[in-house]
Design brief:
- The protein is α/β, with parallel strands linked by helices.
- It is about 45% helix and about 10% strand.
- Strands 2-1-3-12-6 form a five-stranded mixed β-sheet, sandwiched between helices. The chain has a three-stranded antiparallel β-sheet with strand order 10-7-11. Strands 4-5 form a two-stranded antiparallel sheet.
- Strand 4 and strand 5 form a beta hairpin.
- Helix 3 runs antiparallel to helix 15, helix 9 runs parallel beside helix 11 and helix 10 packs across helix 11.
- The longest helix has 16 residues.
Length: about 425
């Protein structure tokens, strides 16, 4: 199967939503000329007022202090709204009303790049990409170009309640560099002794399967875009571990972010394997300070399996035909690809770990975090990030997730063995994306 371009259908309803959301092209142009005192305006679209927005506002403040002729406007939209607006415009060839810079999660970058060739600026000759984690650069790479600038990392760790583990007879050494099978056995003992579940698991997502694949250097697709589910030893082993987790009785099923966060904060589970961005959620419960620790995530016992993974993380993309694309590119290069002090600030103030390697040598990363027993967790995550296997997630990962979710039950109830289920899942996915 050759790599295919996703087609996005423009509908009148979506076009109307775009006009309403953006205020219309004419209104946008009037605001640009009237409100910024003649300065050249760079517009940024992002989501999350607690994380991405304040990061970009800090970056804008630093750039504007040295470039008095530039105004950077940071606009907050919901994640789904940004996706809809970008797809609606670019699928119809309309660039007016779009920002200079947009935020994109790692998993969606290739879908944008392959769906809209020529829409995004190639930054390869403008940014020193050797200063970023390899797997982040891989996300932005298509053929000979590198489209965008990496922002933050989602380096994974095994966060665990030290008190629960000690009660069950386990030390940090017992939890470090272990396999998922060993982890499950630990969970059984923890459940027996403490009554607490080992971890949460959402049966409506394949997030954990993505963890298995990323940490083992493979994906649903080959780098060439060929389907890679049937006969993939990593996915086969991942499905086996998924079934073991479900059968073992050590997981607490949750079906939303709120339920998962509540399980952590209420002390219902002993661990969570997640990206480093989960730290603010864990530390929201002040009375648990000192009870949590973090070590490397479990690994699959397969060739290429590692204890280093990534979940989430995002990047800044520049719309090539936007009015001030040159300034936008210079801004990202000057702040996100050169400014160590900027990364120190967002780490201390927001808890954002950038993918920029030189910043990770800063003393700010070595400061102890009292909540985690005085461990220098930021330095750990920065170090682990450099060992995450680089992969190519392709275009159809969401569709692959859905097919796998829909067919997993046949393995869980014992009516289908794993190889046959994956064969069927690949056939269904092939038919869906053909």
């Amino acid at each position: 199967m050759k790599r295919r371009v996703v087609s996005v259908i423009l509908t009148a309803a979506m076009a109307a939503a775009l006009t309403a959301g953006c205020g219309g092209a004419e209104e946008s142009k009037e605001k640009t000329s009237a409100d910024n005192g003649g300065k050249k305006k760079v517009t940024v679209w992002a989501w999350d007022v607690e994380y991405n927005i304040p990061v970009m506002e800090e970056a804008a403040k630093r750039y504007e202090a040295k470039h008095s002729d530039v105004e950077i406007e940071v606009m907050e939209y919901a994640y789904d709204d940004i996706t809809q607006k970008i797809n609606t415009n670019l699928s119809s060839g309309i660039t007016e009303g779009l920002p200079e810079i947009m935020l994109s999660e790692d998993a969606n970058v290739q879908k944008y790049l392959q769906s809209y060739p020529g829409a995004f600026r190639d930054m390869k000759g403008e940014v020193e990409f050797s200063d970023f984690a390899d797997y982040k650069v891989k996300v932005l790479t298509l053929e000979d170009g590198i489209y965008g600038v990496p922002f933050d990392i989602g380096t994974e760790g095994l966060f665990y309640r030290k008190d629960y583990m000690e009660e069950a007879g386990f030390s940090e050494e017992d939890l470090t560099d272990i396999t998922w099978d060993e982890f499950i056995e630990i969970g059984k003992k923890v459940k027996e002794v403490t009554g607490k579940s080992l971890m949460t698991l959402d049966p409506n997502t394949m997030t954990i399967m993505r963890d298995f694949m990323q940490s083992s250097g493979t994906w649903y697709f080959t780098p060439e875009g060929e389907l890679n589910m049937e006969g993939n030893p990593v996915i086969e082993e991942g499905v086996r571990i998924y079934k073991e987790l479900m059968d073992s009785g050590v997981v607490k099923l949750t079906t939303s972010w709120g339920e998962m966060a509540a399980a952590l904060n209420n002390g219902d589970v002993a661990t969570i394997t997640s990206g480093c961005w989960i730290v603010p959620t864990i530390t929201a419960q002040e009375e648990q300070s000192g009870l949590w620790r973090v070590t490397r995530m479990p690994r699959l016992e397969v060739e290429g399996g590692t204890n280093y993974g990534n979940r989430g993380g995002s990047n800044w993309l520049v719309l090539k035909d936007s009015e001030n694309a040159d300034i936008a590119a210079d801004f990202l290069n000057e702040i996100f690809a050169k400014d160590v002090e900027f990364y120190e600030t967002i780490l201390k103030d927001i808890g954002a770990i950038g993918a920029y390697i030189p910043a990770q040598k800063s003393e700010a990363y070595n400061e102890p975090v009292e909540y985690f027993g005085g461990e220098a967790i930021w330095a750990d995550f920065a170090q682990w990030a450099q060992k995450v296997p680089p992969i190519n997630v392709g275009v159809y990962s969401d569709e692959a997730d859905t097919v796998l979710i829909n067919n997993m039950e046949s393995v869980l109830n014992g009516t289908t063995d794993i190889p046959d289920m994956l064969k069927k899942a690949e056939e269904l996915l092939e038919a869906q994306i053909r």
